[in-house]
Write a structure and sequence with these properties.
38% of the residues lie in helices and 16% in strands. Strands 1-2-3-4-5-6-7-8 form an eight-stranded parallel barrel, surrounded by four helices. It is globular, with a radius of gyration of 17 Å. The mean pLDDT is 96. It binds 2-phosphoglycolic acid (PGA).
Length: 231
């Protein structure tokens, strides 16, 4: 089955590089590939109609005195349909806690944005607590617009060898929680040092529905190899 590939460009490429990247992607018409760009480039969504462009973040209120923040309404106005929420780097460097992530999830879903929600705990007990905290008071019918990205924080940008067994166990555990507690078959992606060399093994050895790629997504040739392996 075709897998989903999400590229998280973070704050890495220049304007020139992002435009050249989108120029190429726009010609491909890949429907299983979403590229999350820095917010200042989200308006390019109006030019690159064949590329699926997503946001890396947004604020949970629609409007107000929040200097520097991005309203979910701005995403809607630019036709942005996807956003990451609760990425480890948002938690680590911008103090996003479960309460903030939960508010963002509720706000994003209310605004019809499809969310890629990151889960980063390692143990089953913490994974369960994380899911219940992040999805508190989320309407069951809205969960169809949620994809989970399982990203153990120690793997992000580390280049370490992926622990396939741990990933598979935790991905299956996440799926089972959503089935049991919310009665939904959620799709779970894996992220953390995915590259063009380990992608085949990751797909063969785990029950994931796709990948969230940071570093390797910055190189067009590498992400193309990953997309090819995902089709
Ligand atoms: P990485 O990043 O692929 O560089 O490990 C993944 C992520 O941060 O989503």
């Amino acid at each position: 089955m075709q897998k989903i590939v999400i590229a998280n460009l973070k704050m890495n490429l220049s304007k020139k590089e992002i435009i050249s990247y989108l120029d190429k992607i726009n010609k491909l018409k890949e429907d299983n590939f979403i590229v999350c760009v820095p917010s200042i480039f989200l308006h390019l969504n109006n030019e690159y109609k064949n590329a699926k462009i997503g946001s890396q973040n947004f604020y949970y209120d629609d409007k107000g005195s929040y200097t520097g923040e991005i309203s979910p309404l701005y995403l809607k106005e630019e036709g942005i349909k996807y956003s990451l929420v609760g990425h480890y780097e948002r938690r680590e460097y911008f103090n996003e806690n479960f309460n903030v992530i939960n508010k963002k999830v509720i706000s994003g879903l209310k605004n019809n944005i499809k969310l890629i929600v990151c889960i980063d705990s390692l143990s089953k007990t913490f994974i369960k607590y994380e899911i219940h905290s992040i999805f508190k008071n989320v309407k069951k019918e809205d969960l169809k617009n949620v994809l989970i990205a399982y990203e153990p924080s120690y793997m992000i940008g580390s280049g370490k060898k992926v622990n396939y067994e741990q990933v598979n166990n935790n991905v299956n555990y996440i799926k089972s929680i959503f089935k049991k507690d919310y009665n939904i078959d959620v799709k779970v992606l894996y992220g953390g040092s995915v590259d063009e060399n380990n992608i085949e093994k990751i797909y063969n050895k785990t029950n994931i529905d796709g990948v969230l790629v940071g570093k390797s997504a910055l190189d067009y040739e590498k992400i193309m190899k990953i997309i090819k392996m995902s089709n």
